[in-house]
Amino acid sequence: MLVTGGAGFIGSHLVERLLAEGHEVTCLDNFNHYYDPAVKRRNISPLLEDKRFTLVEADIRDMDTLRSLFRERRFDKVIHLAAQPGVRLSLQNPGLYMNINVTGTLNLLEALREFGTESFIFGSSSSVYGATEAIPFREDGELKPISPYGASKRAGELLCEVYRHVYRIPIVVLRFFTVYGPRQRPDMAIHKFIRQIDRGGKISLYGDGLSRRDYTFVADIVDGIVAALDKGFAFETFNLGNSEPVALRHLISTIEDCLGKKAVIENLPEQPGDPFVTYADIEKSGRLLDYRPQVKIEQGLERFVRWYEEAKKQG
Ligand SMILES: NC(=O)c1ccc[n+]([C@@H]2O[C@H](COP(=O)([O-])OP(=O)(O)OC[C@H]3O[C@@H](n4cnc5c(N)ncnc54)[C@H](O)[C@@H]3O)[C@@H](O)[C@H]2O)c1
Question: I want to staple 105 with a disulfide (CB 3.0 to 4.6 A). Which of 78, 156, 200, 305 is the partner?
Answer without folding.
Answer: 156
